Amino acid sequence: NFHGAKFVFNIAYHPQTNPIEYIFGIMKQKIRKINITSDTQLLTTVNDILHTGISKDRTFSNCYKKAFSFL
């Protein structure tokens, strides 16, 4: 106990227990399918994936469920 604060320790890092790794994997798959030729096109593609491709198919909650199923 440090000045009333409580320390909570997390498990050691592992890609299977980190939901963002699943999101990055999905994004990389979608980006590889497109022939990107500029930084602007990459940023636009990432923005489109985040706003349409991932959020609409419940991927975020599925990634959390999958990551925490390993705990």
Q: Counting H and I runs of at least 4 residues, what is the number of helices?
A: 3
Q: What ranges have pLDDT less than 50 throughout 5 or more consecutive residues?
A: none
End-to-end distance: 26 Å
What spatial form do the alpha-carbon principal axes imply?
Answer: elongated
Average of pLDDT:
77
Strand content: under 5%
Give the helix level as a range of percent: 55-70%
Global structural class = mainly alpha
Kindly provide the radius of gyration, computed on alpha-carbon positions and rounded to a whole number of angstroms: 17 Å
Per DSSP E runs of 2 or more residues, the count of β-strands stands at 0
Task: Tag the structure with descriptive keywords.
71 residues; single chain; 3 helices; mainly alpha
